[in-house]
Specification:
The protein is an alpha/beta fold. The two termini are 20 Å apart. It has 5 domains: 116 residues, PriA, 3(prime) DNA-binding domain (GIY-YIG endonuclease, 3-Layer(aba) Sandwich); 64 residues; 185 residues, Rossmann fold, CATH 3.40.50.300; 179 residues, P-loop containing nucleotide triphosphate hydrolases (Rossmann fold); 90 residues, Alpha-Beta Plaits, CATH 3.30.70. The chain is 32% helix and 20% strand. β20 and β21 form a beta hairpin. It binds adenosine-5'-diphosphate (ADP) and zinc ion. The site of adenosine-5'-diphosphate (ADP) has 16 residues, from α9.
């Protein structure tokens, strides 16, 4: 979004003093607004952002007031001719249906949030109502949980005159020690009425409780106090406070701090300042880092002012947290991506921790990026925004270079703890020595042995394979690359070929490496299970833990594994990306990366960036406390800039300069905007033809939009999933609008064949 951050908003005319017309969005209509009459008795109460009820078709539906215009549109109550952001045709009076009821006197959507929604629908090319559904949780929109339903049932001791069925129910209630009426009814598959009958018999007490369901209940939290800051922390904090206190335009601040530099402490003290000024804050963390440990760091500083929003919340908890936030009872919100929409009052600060994390991008419509939304929301709310990372994204780094973001750097770890020593292990030499490809190098085995002897812990990191990858020769490191596009070919297993995803060029999979002739070119990766087996063979006495998607699909086992490891009940932890981030293990002194190349093999222009990020984050896990750490990175590409940079304390800036120069050369983001269109359907031919025709239509727009680049329509790297064939089309343009506008144009006139769907991902991050 970088190039369009300063998206200017049309000055909205002030709503009339006594509104007679309300323009609303419903949850059903495809991307259109409708006009309704405001009856005189509601005119004094109606506000923009409110949920109202009105007749739509022949149903009564919930709708949201998006504008209070002076006059109605001519085609009111029927699809408007223009789309959302088009010109409004001159008004002609006609009879409007009335608004029937105002649901929320305090609007569910604040003005800035509504503006944000409109911008987001426009920018992500998504229907407004779907954006709305992302901003307001469904429990709020649908009133599924209302406070009047919050009755608490307490079973009483003694004998009562009950039927057999009622007696059973009472016994069950005693066993679970009572609970919320609506939940008990679900749990014991009975109606609330049945429970009320028990009350009539005197067997239970039912009372209204306005006790908030608090996701942090039952956790003992000891308060912590602000730590005296290190010099660099102090400077960073001062920059944030300056932003908090500025009245006018505030630039986003990128907090570039190495792992262990104490970024969280800076956030905590910045939030404390915001609170002192009567303002609230939102802290976004990647879903995977939203652990009890993380939440604890905030709760122990700000107590009940903290609200946590995460995907595992029950409807009731979500409902309560949302209202606690809206009423201002909670003013510090911690959560993943979607928490960027939290209805915080008087928002003063948004923090996006680990801003480079791909999980901030939603992988369904609307494909929004929470970091970009945070920046836009901060702009609309006139509040400060801090993006923190040890490995900033190229987008953000480029924004610093262009003067759109300010920069604060923390290059030292707290208490001047040393950075871990990083060794690069050249696996080509290991292959040559052993005569075949190795999983563990001699030096890594030696380092592991030493840790076992000293009673210290190790982490072994195995990069999980994505859907798409290219091929790297295990002997010479050769990567098959499309010369014309300077992008690695994608290996397509289905038809055993290498394909360029930009120009569509393809060739059959070579039998041996074109560079050195090694037949092992068709390199196959290893899984965590195999690593575990091998490790147990090498070190039968070692206690090994494994963490990957297979193991952690069971709820809580992620936390359980980590706490077992933290408590020292295991010597070695093997894992995938999951263990790369945010975890703090004082006794870990060795981190081994088994194959740094897996992520370099992604045929993605971000492959080098991702690899650098992963390696730097993984290395950050070693030597966090008093014990110094060591990192071994095994690779077939020891000279690759991403790997060399990760092996150096101050490698980032040089890596970023070089990487950005290459991106500029190839016209890749952040120097262009990338829109990824994915076509899906069960009939492959239909999907392919639709994608090709769409590509053709997009090329037709090039006269009006000469800077638009349109790729060939190709099978997606993930060519088939869940029975659906997937085809992909990439658009590149210097500004997002220059891709989105022609795209809207084509969409308007293009009829997808039945059975084929298309999704639009503006500023795509994962191209799969
Ligand atoms: P980062 O997020 O930058 O990797 P953290 O915020 O996790 O770093 O800080 C690393 C550790 O240092 C934490 O245990 C934290 O409590 C501690 N720490 C942070 N700031 C200070 C400080 N000023 N003095 C002492 N310890 C600190
Ligand atoms: Zn190509």
């Amino acid at each position: 979004m970088n190039q369009e951050q300063n998206h200017s908003f049309r000055e909205k005319p002030q709503p009339p003093a006594t509104p007679t017309v309300a323009r609303v969005a419903t949850e059903f209509a495809a991307d259109r607004f409708f006009d309704y009459a405001v009856p005189p008795e509601l005119a004094g109460r109606i506000r923009i952002g409110q949920q109202v009820r009105a007749e739509f078709g022949n149903r009564i539906v919930e709708a949201y007031v998006v504008e209070l215009p002076q006059t109605a549109e001519p085609a009111a109550n029927a699809p408007a001719e223009s789309d959302l952001f088009g010109e409004i045709p001159s008004a002609a009076k006609r009879r409007l249906k009335p608004i029937l009821e105002i649901v929320d006197d305090t609007p569910f959507l604040s003005r800035p949030l509504l503006e944000l929604a409109r911008w987001m629908a426009d920018y992500t090319c998504s229907p407004f109502e779907i954006v709305l559904r992302n901003i307001l949780p469904s429990v709020i929109r649908r009133h599924e949980v209302r406070e009047k339903e919050l009755f608490f049932v307490t079973p009483k001791p003694g004998d009562f005159e009950l039927t057999k069925r009622q007696n059973e129910l009472l016994e069950n209630l005693r066993r679970v020690d009572g609970g919320w009426l609506h939940l008990l009814a679900k749990e014991f598959s009975c109606s609330p009425g049945t429970l009320r009958k028990l009350e009539e018999r005197g067997a239970v007490k039912i009372e209204k409780k306005n006790l908030r369901r608090n996701p942090m209940a039952n956790r003992r939290i000891l308060p912590t106090r602000p730590k005296p800051l290190m010099a660099e922390q102090e400077t960073a904090l001062r920059q944030i406070i300056e932003l908090l206190d500025t009245e006018g335009k505030k630039l986003p601040l990128l907090l570039f701090g190495v792992t262990g530099s104490g970024k969280t402490e800076v956030y905590l003290q910045a939030i404390a300042h915001a609170l002192e000024r009567g303002k609230g804050a939102i802290v976004l963390v990647p879903e995977i880092a939203l652990t009890p440990q993380t939440v604890h760091r905030f709760a122990s500083r700000f107590g009940t002012k903290v609200a946590v929003l995460h995907s595992a919340l029950g409807d009731g908890e979500r409902y309560d947290e949302w209202h606690r936030i809206r009423t201002g009872e909670a003013s510090v919100v911690v959560g993943p991506r979607s928490a960027v929409f939290a209805p915080v009052r008087d928002l003063g600060l948004i923090v996006v921790d680990e801003e480079h994390e791909p999980s901030y991008k939603q992988d369904e419509t609307p494909h929004y990026h929470a970091r970009d939304i945070a920046v836009m929301r901060a702009h609309l709310e006139k509040c400060a925004v801090v993006l923190g990372s040890a490995t900033p994204s190229m987008e953000s780094w480029n924004n610093v270079n262009c003067g759109k973001y300010r920069l604060a750097t923390m290059a030292a770890r707290v208490e001047n703890r040393p950075m871990p020593a990083v060794q690069i292990v050249d696996m080509r030499l290991e292959t040559a020595r052993a005569g075949h490809a190795q999983i563990f190098s001699e030096s890594l085995l030696d380092a592991l042995r030493l840790r076992l002897e000293r009673g210290e812990q190790s982490i072994l990191f195995l990069n999980r394979r994505g859907y798409s990858r290219s091929l790297v020769c295990p002997s010479c490191g050769y990567t098959a690359t499309c010369e014309a596009c300077a992008l690695a070919y994608t290996y397509h297993q289905a038809d055993s070929c290498l394909r360029c995803h930009i120009c569509g060029d393809w060739k059959p999979l070579p039998e041996r490496c074109p560079e050195c002739g090694d037949p092992a070119f068709k390199y196959q990766g290893v899984g965590t299970q195999r690593v575990e087996l091998l490790l147990k063979k090498c070190f039968p006495q070692a206690r090994v833990l494994r963490m990957d998607a297979d193991v952690t699909s069971r709820k809580h086992s992620h936390d359980e594994i980590l706490s077992v490891f933290r408590s020292g009940q295991a010597d070695i932890l093997i894992g995938t990306q999951m263990i790369a981030k945010g975890l703090d293990f004082p006794n870990v002194t060795l981190v081994g990366v088994l194959s740094a190349d897996t992520s370099l093999q992604m045929p993605d222009f971000r492959a080098a960036e991702r690899t650098y990020q992963l390696l730097a984050q993984v290395s950050g896990r070693a030597g966090r406390a008093e014990l110094p750490g060591e990192v071994y990175i095994q690779t077939y590409l020891p000279d690759h800039p991403a790997i060399r940079a990760a092996a150096s304390d101050s490698g980032f800036a040089a890596f970023a300069d070089r990487e950005l120069a290459e991106r500029r050369q190839g016209n890749y983001p952040p120097f262009s905007h990338l829109v990824c269109l994915t076509f899906k359907g069960t009939a492959e031919d239909a999907v392919r033809i639709a994608a090709e025709k769409f590509a053709e239509a997009m090329r037709g727009e090039k006269t009006a939009f000469p800077k638009l680049r349109v790729s060939a329509a190709c099978p997606a790297p993930l060519a088939k999933a869940k029975g659906f064939f997937r085809y992909q089309l990439l658009l590149f343009a210097p500004a997002a609008g220059q891709a989105v506008r022609p795209l809207r144009e084509v969409c308007r006139n293009f009829a997808l064949p039945t059975g084929v769907t298309m999704s639009i991902d503006v500023d795509a991050v994962n191209i799969c």
